[in-house]
Design brief:
alpha+beta, 383 residues, globular, Rossmann fold, four-stranded antiparallel β-sheet, five-stranded mixed β-sheet, 2 domains
Length: 383
């Protein structure tokens, strides 16, 4: 991956996020990104990539056509941008070694999408500093009616024959919960359906009765495949932020609420990391406590917040005049962009992420650690 643009202050790289070889280990302080969402569209001009399988294999591809999840995404951010091409169907290509050729986001199953997401996150984690933070924006999707016929394989390293299901792993109109599957994978959990576990147990039973050790080997391969879906070591999910949109796209649905939010998964490499709470404080809303018995900063007495709480006492902490601690619901309206771009952020969203996870004055030139903000107070604040 080589620099695409460079000046005295900025270097832009363009390349495969799975292979950021030009970036050193632990060299990145903050990552803010929004990858392609699952099952939405094939973008014009984006070549297919090879994912998984045996790197030494020459790859003989077997293809199958399927229907995209057109109209079933929860995100207008990737549903209505210039520069993208919607198709009613696409073609998957599988190899006997277990490799898949296609565009990230167009995997035939959510499980395969999560596996590829973990592959990208593994490289992101490599370049991230130990005190760095990742903000991973994802929208959710709904199951569609079109299934996919997939290749059969007997490669033990790939797993049980035909483990890539012939039928969709979610029901039509069923919410896929992609952001939560990714979050669980980051924590080391694989989301496997009960039906798949039962199918695995049935194969083990048949292999035991028949004394078929090859079948046992296939089941072992399948279990190892499932573990690969969640092989992101030592990653913390610190928050799942709700991106609340003030101007969501209308949806032609009459049997559920209109979707007006997306998710931002906040990931770190350790329990301690750089975070500048002062840089992203929010204005107080409503009465705030002054710490004086029975009185708020607005001058009200007694129970001022509508909750069943006793009158304030001196034990209540003073409020922070700089604002309250940032909440986990961020309200940013979608922002139009006239040029060709696959998916654009409202500028205020990545700005907040950068302010929170990077220092205003930069990092130490010697060790690379971020400069921490020094604060002085005579009272104990709580947001």
């Amino acid at each position: 991956m080589k620099p695409y643009y460079q000046d005295n202050d900025t270097t832009l790289y363009c390349g495969d996020a799975r292979h950021m070889d030009d970036l050193e280990d632990g060299s990145v302080q903050c990552v803010v990104t929004s990858p392609p969402y699952w099952g939405l569209r094939k973008y014009a001009g984006v070549p297919d990539l090879i994912w998984g399988g045996d790197a030494e294999c020459g790859h003989e591809w077997q293809s199958s056509s399927r229907t995209l999840h057109t109209g079933t995404t929860q995100s207008e951010k990737q549903d209505s941008n210039a520069g993208a091409m919607t198709k009613d169907s696409t073609t998957d290509a599988f190899c006997q070694c277990g490799a898949w050729r296609g565009s990230y986001g167009l995997e035939p199953t959510p499980e395969l999408y999560v596996e590829h997401t973990v592959e990208v996150l593994r490289e992101v984690r490599r370049v991230l500093r130990d005190d760095g933070v990742v903000f991973w924006n994802l929208g959710d999707s709904y199951g569609a009616g079109g299934g996919t016929q997939v290749v059969q394989t007997k490669n033990a390293s790939h797993g049980l024959a035909g483990y890539r299901q012939k039928t969709p792993t979610v029901k039509p109109k069923d919410l896929v919960l992609i952001p939560f599957r990714v979050a669980l994978a980051a924590q080391g959990f694989a989301t496997v359906s009960g039906k798949e576990i039962l199918r695995c147990a049935d194969h083990l039973r048949d292999a035991r009765l028949a004394g078929d050790w090859d079948a046992v080997q296939m089941v072992e391969g399948l279990l190892r495949v499932w573990s690969r879906w969640a092989s992101l070591d030592d990653t913390w999910v610190r928050s799942i932020i709700i991106w609340d949109k003030a101007n969501p796209m209308p949806e032609s649905v009459r049997d559920r609420p209109t979707t007006s939010h997306e998710y931002i998964i906040m990931l770190t490499k350790s329990a301690r990391y750089y975070w500048d709470a002062e840089a992203v404080r929010e204005p107080h809303t409503g009465p705030v406590f002054s710490g004086k018995a029975g009185r708020s900063a607005e001058g009200y007495t007694g129970r001022t917040d509508g909750l069943s709480r006793p009158p304030l006492t001196m034990k209540h902490r003073d409020y922070n005049p700089a604002g309250r601690n940032v909440r986990s619901v961020w309200s940013f309206p979608s922002q139009p962009y006239p040029d060709a771009h696959f998916a654009t952020f409202p500028e205020a969203l990545p700005e907040r992420c950068i302010l929170a996870a990077t220092p205003e004055v930069g990092c130490c030139e010697k060790c690379g650690a971020p400069w921490e903000r020094l604060t002085e107070s005579t009272t104990r604040f709580e947001g």
